[in-house]
Amino acid sequence: MAGLRENTSGQLIILSGFVLCISLVTLAVLVNQAMITGFHSSNAVLEFPKQQIRDITSQTRESCQSMTGLALALNQSNNQGIESNYHSLFSQYKQQMAILYAGHGEEVTLSLSKMNLTSIGTNASTGGTVWVNITYNNGMTYYASEPEIIEVEP
Questions:
Q1: Taking a C-beta distance cutoff of 8 angstroms, is the pair 57, 146 a contact?
Q2: Least packed by Cβ within 10 Å: which of 31, 36, 46, 81?
Q3: What pLDDT score does 120 carry?
Q4: Within a domain: 2
Q5: Using CA atoms, how far apart are residues 24 and 13, in angstroms rounded to an integer?
Q6: Rounded-to-integer distance, Cα 66 and Cα 90, Å
Q7: pLDDT, tens digit, for every residue of 76-102?
Q8: What is the model's pTM?
Q9: What mean pLDDT is predicted for residues 59-65?
Q10: Given this model, what pLDDT does residue 131 score?
């Protein structure tokens, strides 16, 4: 028994075994964290609502084009100006867009910041410009295009 207490040559083997086990566990944890980080970063790119923002912008451009023709037609039938008719049409459009996207849990805010439509009523060959502020918020992503300059023609 006394010989086993004095013989310490096996302690180095046991110590190196513990060091090797700890280093393998550390390496496994680091590799696992790298895989999880790559997975979450790739999903974050996929969650960006690029298509929704593109749809809002293109729909607003098309609607502004249509509203210009409607405002010009309403100007000939009622005694209000083109800009007044355009404001009422745009107000209805922005309410409809807000309701449509609120059903999906997203917030869309549209506002007119500036418009130059007086040349449309006087000369049918020239177009005008409409400056629209577009903001989009889905709780994770906030996007603002201030202003979005839209060229309109009658």
A1: no
A2: 46
A3: 59
A4: no
A5: 17
A6: 10
A7: 777 777 888 889 999 999 999 999 999
A8: 0.65
A9: 92
A10: 92
* Residue 44, token pair as written in the block: 């974050």
Residues 67 and 83 grouped into a single domain: yes
What is the SS3 string spanning the chain?
Answer: CHHHHHCCCCHHHHHHHHHHHHHHHHHHHHHHHHHHHHHHHHHHHHCCCHHHHHHHHHHHHHHHHHHHHHHHHHHHHCCCCHHHHHHHHHHHHHHHHHHHHHCCCCEEEEEEEEEECHHHHHCCCCCEEEEEEEEEECCCCEEEEEEEEEEECC
Same domain, yes or no, for 23 and 94? Answer: no
- State how many domains the chain has: 2
Query: What is the residue range of 56's domain?
Result: 50-152
Q: Are 148 and 115 in contact (CB under 8 A)?
A: no
